[in-house]
């Protein structure tokens, strides 16, 4: 059984990936300082899998503490690196925090990868590396334009660091550029728990619908799109999670053709913000209270994926459509309210 280290393993995508890895025969450990997450999703992982889930509460910016985890787990065969600040809007407001956290954490992990000779490394990248593309859908060969936000810039830098590192290390690497993960695990045991005001669309929708937020703002309806709102590629978090498992299996089987390979992870369908709201209203039966506001700094007009390379090379399959994304997100939001999980999460984050 291969042991996989997931950094940010108590976060939204990290938790779903941990479940998928464990269900596919991997042993999983996590590093997560819980500064942007809580222990609640770790508990959910254990409930889904019936297996214990070990998390090291370590700040990856602290090299000595990070190295200690590697010393204790000398049999790690692969790493999936999620741990990063991830909100586009917040990164515009707090650029130095994003550069410091996202770059220092990655560099410290890679130092340990080299020292302990970890053979496989998967990086959680983002479609934000494409900037504002001239042509959509984007392929893995689309030009890397100037990032529209500090968050996107950290992903561009992260990819460059990993490529340069792979040239001088024995490690094989995969960069997964995913688009807009949404929804929750079909078991309804884990999902997204924003600890502050939601920065992403779907939790903003569900929190407005359930009454946590009085009103939702659609940032811009004057874009040259079919209804004036931004176009995004929404993809279910469980589909994203499984792609990480497939990427690791691909590396472990030595199928990679180069030291660093890149895959887009999206459905390939561009959906406007207003279309996403309509899909939620249809699934939930709730009428959403929203207004049209000004454009938000850092947002781009439209982006969605050409995912054919991941489908063909990793044998990746999209299992969830937009309505199922919204259905699972809404079921999770209802559970969060019923069980008081948000309040519990906020308390946990202060510990």
**Most strands sheet:** 7 strands, parallel
Overall CATH class: Alpha Beta
- Principal-axis shape equals globular
Radius of gyration: 19 Å
Number of helices: 12
Q: Summarize the helix and strand pattern as letters.
A: EHEHEHEHHEHEEHEEEHEEHEHHH
CATH architecture: 3-Layer(aba) Sandwich
- Report the sheet-strand fraction: 15-25%
CATH superfamily: NAD(P)-binding Rossmann-like Domain
Query: Separation of termini?
Result: 33 Å
> Can you list the strand order of the major beta sheet?
3-2-1-4-5-6-11
Mean pLDDT: 95
Q: Uncertain spans, ≥5 residues at pLDDT below 50?
A: none
Assign the structural class, choosing from mainly alpha, mainly beta, alpha/beta, alpha+beta, or little secondary structure: alpha/beta
Describe, in short, the structure shown.
By secondary structure, the chain is an alpha/beta fold. It is 43% helix and 16% strand. It has helices at 12-23, 40-49, 63-72, 88-93, 95-115, 150-168, 201-210, 237-252, 273-284, 308-314, 322-339, 341-349, and strands at 3-7, 27-31, 54-56, 76-81, 120-126, 172-178, 180-182, 216-219, 231-232, 234-236, 260-265, 271-272, 290-293.
């Amino acid at each position: 059984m291969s042991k996989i280290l997931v950094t940010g393993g108590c976060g939204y995508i990290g938790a779903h990936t941990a479940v998928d890895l464990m269900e596919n025969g991997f042993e999983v450990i996590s590093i997560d300082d819980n500064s942007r997450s809580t222990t609640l999703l770790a508990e959910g992982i254990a409930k889904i899998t019936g297996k214990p889930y070990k998390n090291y509460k370590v700040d990856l910016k602290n090299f000595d503490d990070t190295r200690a985890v590697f010393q204790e787990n000398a049999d790690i065969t692969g790493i999936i690196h999620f741990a990063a600040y991830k909100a586009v809007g917040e990164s515009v407001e707090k650029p130095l925090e994003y550069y410091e956290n996202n770059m220092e954490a990655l560099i410290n992990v890679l130092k340990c990868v080299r020292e302990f000779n970890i053979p496989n490394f998967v990086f959680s990248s983002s479609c934000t590396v494409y900037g504002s593309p001239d042509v959509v859908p984007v392929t893995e060969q689309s030009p890397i334009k100037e990032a529209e936000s500090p968050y996107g810039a950290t992903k561009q830098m992260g990819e460059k660091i990993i490529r340069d590192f792979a040239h001088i290390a024995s490690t094989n690497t995969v960069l997964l550029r995913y688009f807009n993960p949404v929804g929750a695990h079909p078991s309804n045991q884990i999902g997204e728990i924003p600890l502050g005001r939601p920065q992403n669309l779907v939790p903003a929708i569900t929190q407005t619908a359930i009454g946590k937020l009085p009103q939702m703002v659609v940032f811009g309806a004057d874009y040259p799109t079919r209804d004036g709102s931004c176009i995004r590629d929404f993809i279910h978090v469980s589909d994203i999670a499984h792609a990480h498992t497939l990427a690791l299996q691909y590396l472990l089987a030595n199928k990679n053709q180069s030291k660093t390979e890149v895959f887009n992870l999206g459905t390939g369908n561009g959906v406007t913000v207003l279309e996403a709201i309509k899909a939620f209203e249809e699934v939930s039966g709730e009428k959403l209270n929203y207004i049209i506001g000004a454009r938000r700094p850092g947002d781009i007009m439209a982006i969605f994926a050409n995912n054919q390379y991941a489908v063909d090379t990793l044998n990746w399959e999209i299992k969830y459509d937009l309505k199922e994304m919204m259905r699972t997100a809404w079921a999770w939001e209802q559970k969060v309210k019923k069980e008081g999980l948000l309040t519990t999460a906020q308390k946990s984050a202060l510990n």
